[in-house]
Amino acid sequence: MHNNWANNLKADFYDQGSKTLGVEFVGSSITSGGDGADTTPGNEAVVDENPHIEFFNGQRGYVRCTLTPQEWRADYRVLPYVKQPGAQIYTRASFVTEAGNPGLKQAGETQVPSRSASLVETDTERIRAQERAARGEAIR
Prior knowledge:
Elements: E1 4-10, E2 20-26, H1 41-49, E3 53-57, E4 61-67, E5 71-78, E6 90-98, E7 101-107, H2 123-134
Antiparallel strand pairs: 1-2, 1-3, 4-5, 5-6, 6-7
């Protein structure tokens, strides 16, 4: 997959008003080649056509899951780049699903933007992140 996803599983994907039956958490590979990107115009189009997709991200990383009797929490941990050493991992997004209440809810401080917002990460932004890391500066 090489992408991060958080999806609501619907009884009828063609009817967004249909019952949410569960959730799906999909994680990227942290060791795959290529730096990945937060999103791309092509991927934004896929998300726009599939409103059950609550989160999509193409950066490398992993999903840290924490389970309690009350909820399942998924923290999407990503790197700004993987082609060089020194990248600092950070939480891109967090979601919870509560026991007995299927469906995703955003959690944590990092909010996923609305579908109308554009978050296309450019090569220039990636290069700047690499330069900041090389100087020992924190990645936001």
